[in-house]
Write a structure and sequence with these properties.
Layout lengths: L9 E4 L5 H10 L4 E6 L20 H5 L5 H5 L12 E4 L6 H8 L4 E3 L1 H4 L2 H9 L7 E7 L21 H14 L2 E7 L10 H16 L8
Parallel strand pairs: 1-6, 2-3, 2-5, 3-4, 5-6
The structure holds manganese (II) ion.
Manganese (II) ion binds next to loops.
C-alpha cells in the first residue's frame, strides 16, 4: 500500500472483518502495524467459544491469529498482529465469558469509562509507542452511543460521544502515525435522518486531517 502524501486509505465496509485486508496491505509496506479497534463489542470470539456462530464477532480474534488461521493466511501479505499491539476501545457489550477471555489476553481493553480517562488512554498508547511504526484506526460505528442513532442491530447503550471519539483520535495521532482507517457496520435503516452518517463523515474528515502518509519502509 504505497501512500501518496496528503491521502489516506479509508475502507467503508458493512462488516468488521474486512479490516483484515487492510492490515495485510499495511504489513506489505514493511512497517510494524498497530491497531486501534473501536467497537461496542470485543469481536474476539473464536468459533470454539462463540455461542452464536456470528462470523463478524470474530474479526479481532482473526487479526491476532486466534482462529481461522488457514483462511486468514490466504489473504496476500497477512500475518497475525501481536495482541500487545492492539488497543480495543469503547467495547462494553460483552458476556462474562467474553470479558474473561479478553482480560486473559494481551489486548489492551479500554472500556468507555477508560476512554474518558486521559491517563488510561495515554497509558494504552504508551504500550504501542516504540513497538509499532504505524496505526490503523478501525471504527465499528456501534462504538458510538446509540443516542446519536443506532449503527446496526447490535448497538448497545453506554457508548462514546462524538467528542470522546475525536479526543481518542487526537491522542492517538499525537503519539503515532495514523495511516489508514476503517468505518464499518453502518446500517442506514436505523439512521433515518442521517445523524450517525453525518457523524461518520465528519470523523472521516478528522481522520484525513490527522493522518500520516503510509509511504514505504526506508
Ligand atoms: Mn465489530
Amino acid at each position: 500500500m504505497a501512500g501518496t502524501p496528503g491521502t489516506v486509505p479509508v475502507l467503508l465496509s458493512g462488516n468488521c472483518n474486512t479490516t483484515l485486508g487492510v492490515l495485510a496491505g499495511l504489513r506489505a509496506s514493511g512497517r510494524r502495524v498497530g491497531l486501534l479497534w473501536l467497537d461496542a463489542h470485543g469481536d474476539f470470539n473464536t468459533p470454539e467459544e462463540d455461542t452464536g456462530g456470528f462470523l463478524d464477532g470474530q474479526g479481532l480474534a482473526i487479526a491476532v491469529g486466534r482462529c481461522w488461521t488457514a483462511l486468514a493466511a490466504g489473504i496476500p501479505g497477512f500475518a497475525p498482529l501481536s495482541e500487545r499491539d492492539v488497543v480495543l476501545a469503547g467495547a462494553r457489550d460483552l458476556t462474562p465469558a467474553q470479558q474473561r477471555t479478553l482480560r486473559a489476553s494481551d489486548v489492551t481493553w479500554l472500556r468507555p469509562a477508560q476512554v474518558r480517562d486521559a491517563a488510561a488512554v495515554e497509558a494504552a498508547l504508551d504500550g504501542l509507542v516504540g513497538r509499532v511504526d504505524v496505526v490503523h484506526w478501525h471504527v465499528d460505528l456501534d462504538v458510538y452511543d446509540p443516542s446519536i442513532a443506532p449503527a446496526n442491530d447490535y448497538a448497545a447503550p453506554g457508548g462514546l460521544t462524538v467528542g470522546e471519539v475525536l479526543d481518542l483520535l487526537e491522542r492517538t495521532a499525537a503519539r503515532l502515525p495514523v495511516v489508514s482507517a476503517t468505518l464499518a457496520s453502518y446500517d442506514p435503516a436505523h439512521d433515518p435522518v442521517g445523524r450517525l452518517r453525518a457523524t461518520a463523515l465528519d470523523l472521516l474528515e478528522q481522520v484525513a486531517a490527522r493522518a500520516a502518509p503510509v509511504g514505504r519502509a526506508p
